[in-house]
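User: My instructor asked us to take a sequence, write out its structure as tokens, and then describe one feature of it. I'm not sure where to start. Here is the sequence I was given:
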Amino acid sequence: VKMASQAASVVRQVKPILSINREDARRKVLTLYKAWIRQVPISLLTYDIPKSEVDCKRKIREEFKRHAHLTDLRIIDTVIIKGQMELQEVANMWKPTGALMYYWKETWEKKPTDFMSKFLSGQD
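Assistant: Let's start with the prediction itself. The structure tokens for your sequence are:
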């Protein structure tokens, strides 16, 4: 029983990576978001991708909203660090165009399972 209480106290004493509290984490996320939005016009000039500025900003918003459910400060800080590294790769043109286009990958349609759907799609 004593070991369990010691382990629980160790878990509670783990410090966050960057953020002190939720407000600090929120401020850092918003700063990163603004940096990404400011980088869009520059990236469109340097990378030759067939997307508009509106498409890029929409995709950035989608990526940030994908992580909106996170509550643990350490995980939020880790995602912030990854986002900063990704932004640095894009800003310095270390990321190839194909890797950038991966964010707009097409979704795969499920293969038909019944006879009529297979027939209409041209499968055996």
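For the description part of your assignment, you could build on this observation: The mean pLDDT is 85. Try explaining in your own words what that tells you about the chain.
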